[in-house]
Design goal:
This protein is mainly α. It has three domains: 73 residues, Endonuclease III, domain 1 (Orthogonal Bundle); 81 residues, Helix-hairpin-Helix base-excision DNA repair enzymes (C-terminal) (Endonuclease Iii, domain 2, Orthogonal Bundle), CATH 1.10.1670.10; 76 residues, Arc Repressor Mutant, subunit A (Orthogonal Bundle), CATH 1.10.10. 52% of the residues lie in helices and 8% in strands. The chain has a three-stranded antiparallel sheet with strand order 3-5-4. It has a two-stranded antiparallel ribbon with strand order 1-2. β4 and β5 form a beta hairpin. α7 crosses α9. About 2% of the residues have low confidence.
């Protein structure tokens, strides 16, 4: 839930989700529709389906116990390098790096004296991984990663870091650069413009409209509606010339298993998957 979503927004949803699915088995036995409905308000709905599939695989292959072996974890749905590292380090206190953007920034600044403005290559990522792995204190992986993430969110922030108050400034390779250039230093990494469309004169990423569509389906299952009315419910200034764009979003969401839709006589009926 915390992937690309702020903590205050997650806290209440996490409590509700855990009350509804207190164990992995409860989650595994639930329908896709129940899981998607429970994810309402969090966005990035594909995460809900990945979590659901992960629970099913853990129950089928590992008797409901999340494995502590890195290779076994990575074979499960939704398990990329960061999620694998987060489970092993936070849940099992094993010396496996969980490198998110905050941890990466701290390592690059402190040890290499540079701010990250461009994506890292595979070789650089692997070098950072090996270095981070060697730096984890014995039997303190959970505490270490918690400290890194707190430090990255409160002191070594992306924008306007608190370098002048930082307790590590005497040994940080980045501090001299900051000290000599703080009046003109640019910390904001240029963001790549996401694919999307204009709404009321402003560019809106497609992921926002995808979220609106799933939310609409949650609240209007099996309701027949014209494509134009549906478009107006999703996009404030929708016009019929954007129909192909709207249908392409529906096609993608259906292919990902997030909804089902039926189009007939320019009317559409939508539902969550079973």
């Amino acid at each position: 839930m915390l992937q690309q979503t702020q903590v205050p927004r997650v806290i209440e949803k996490f409590k509700e989700f855990m009350e509804r699915f207190p164990t992995l088995l409860d989650l595994a036995k639930a329908s896709k529709a129940d899981v998607i409905e429970s994810w309402s308000g969090l966005g990035y709905n594909r995460r809900a389906l990945l979590l659901h599939k992960f629970a099913q695989e853990v129950c089928e292959k590992h008797n409901g116990v999340i494995p502590q072996d890195k290779e076994q974890l990575q074979e499960l749905s939704g398990m990329g390098p960061y999620t694998t590292g987060a489970i092993l380090s936070f849940a099992y206190n094993l010396p496996e790096p969980a490198i998110d953007v905050n941890v990466r920034r701290i390592y690059l600044r402190f040890f290499q004296g540079k701010d990250q403005g461009l994506p890292m290559g595979k070789k650089e990522e692997q070098e950072l991984y090996q270095f981070a792995k060697r730096s984890i204190p014995v039997n303190r992986s959970t505490d270490f990663h918690s400290a890194l993430m707190d430090f990255g969110s409160s002191v070594c922030t992306r924008n306007n870091p608190s370098c002048n108050e930082c307790p590590l400034q005497s040994s940080c390779a980045f501090f001299p650069l900051y000290k000599n250039n703080q009046d003109k230093f640019m910390f904001v990494m240029e963001k790549r413009k996401e694919q999307g469309i204009t709404e009321n004169g402003k560019h809106i990423p497609n992921r926002i409209f995808r979220g609106r569509i799933v939310e609409f389906v949650r609240n209007n299952q099996q309701t027949e509606i014209s494509i134009d009315d549906f478009g107006k419910a999703i996009k404030k200034d929708y016009n019929h010339q954007e129909e192909s764009w709207l249908l392409s979003l529906l096609e993608k969401l259906q292919s990902e298993g997030l909804l089902n839709y039926n189009l007939s006589n320019h009317k559409i009926t939508l539902s969550l998957p079973e």
